[in-house]
Amino acid sequence: MASASFQNVTKRFPEGEIAVKDMSLEVKDGEFLIVLGPSGCGKSTALRMLAGAEDVTEGVIKIGETVVNNVPSRNRDVAMVFQTYALYPHMSVFDNMAFSLRLQGVDQADIARRVNRAAEIVGLGPFLKRLPRQLSGGEQQRVALGRAIVRDPQLFLFDEPLSSLDANLRGHMRVELQKIHRALGATFLYVTHDQVEAMTLGDRIAVMNDGVLQQVAPPSVMYEHPANMFVAGFIGTPAMNLIPVAVSGKTAKGSALQIELPREPRLTAGVLGIRPEALHEDASRGEPTIDVQVNQAEMLGRDQLLYGTVGDNAIVARVDPHVKISLGERVQLGIDMESIHLFDAKTGQAVL
Asked: Which SS3 state, helix, strand or coil, does residue 110 take?
């Protein structure tokens, strides 16, 4: 296995569009790193540059200590798993997994050993004689994983591999991917727009937007300490509430909202960030409160989401499902001050 790195990498297409801008990122040996961002943010382009499917305009890409900018894709010793499985419909599971090894001239005994080992890892041992049409979507995705595993590459690259599966299968395959990663001890670089995949799978997450790397951190750090407003609004379901405020000393004042900040942030125009779970229905704890006009409530089993307004701003709160709240009601919600964030309104960067 090996590490990989992007060093000040830029990808500029012939029409002038910049897909990736000055990206520096290290993927550690044996790490499960997630590249997360919305469609069109440059994450798949970054993956394709590492795989050799896209040229690098500027900067350096390394696999281990080797610069691979000019190394053909076939010689980079990486395996890609895509959203589409691209299985040969007329071939058995065994033959699909063995195909690349036969092209390389690997002897039959070694092919059988490697395919059977990969099938055991991905749980396909009983299915090796079946055709793709006899498999479920999740089983077909596991064939694609097994096909990558038999190559024993230095790096596994995943480009939104679960996005075509239904919700239940995605949850199952997330568990399977974690097991496979542990079994192989391999280096995984995984691209997705799905934050649930990112938060549950990744050792670290690299968030991209408009071709620019925004933050790289473990999932818990990313959630609790977002570097800027984009990360704060992108990570979390529902998203963090972002409320414009004027700041004077330690006082933050917005539409129908005024609170005292833990310390003076030394700016005058800010955006207050409050996670939905940092708002609670017990307004008697001595914490600051806000007056919320409730427009909608959603029951989600263990949670209740309240959608409403505070002055001119929309807001979402996650509260106890046993609390009965009527639509149109005004409620006082307490604010957990240890969980608030403040961003510079001009730069978007976190200051508190």
From this structure: helix
Strand partners for 341: 273
End-to-end CA separation in angstroms for the chain: 39
- The tens-digit pLDDT sequence of the chain (352 residues) is 799 999 999 999 998 999 999 999 999 999 999 999 999 999 999 999 999 999 999 999 999 999 999 999 999 999 999 888 889 999 999 999 999 999 999 999 999 999 999 999 998 999 999 999 999 988 998 899 999 999 989 999 999 988 888 888 888 889 888 988 998 999 999 999 999 999 999 999 999 999 999 999 999 999 999 999 999 999 999 999 999 999 999 999 999 999 999 999 989 999 999 999 999 887 667 788 899 999 999 998 888 999 999 999 999 999 999 888 888 899 999 999 999 999 999 999 999 9
Please count the helices (runs of H) and the strands (runs of E) in the chain. 8, 20
CB 243 within 8 A of CB 250: no
Domain layout of the chain by residue ranges: 4-229, 238-344
Q: How far, in Å, CA of 117 to CA of 94, rounded? A: 11
**Packing angle of the helix pair 108-122, 167-184 (nearest 10 deg):** 130
117, amino acid identity: R
pTM score over 0.90: yes
**Pairing of the two strands 58-63 and 66-67:** antiparallel
H helices of the chain, in order, are 43-51, 93-103, 108-122, 137-149, 167-184, 195-201, 219-224, 229-234
DSSP 37-100: --TTSSHHHHHHHHHTSS--SEEEEEETTEE-TTS-GGGS-EEEEESS----TTS-HHHHHHHH
Strands 289-300 and 330-335: antiparallel
C-beta separation of 68 from 145 below 8 A:
no
CATH fold for domain 238-344: OB fold (Dihydrolipoamide Acetyltransferase, E2P) (2.40.50)
Per the listing, tokens 């974690």 go with 178
Tell me, which fold does domain 4-229 have in CATH?
Rossmann fold (3.40.50)
Helix (H, G, I), strand (E, B) or coil at 214: strand
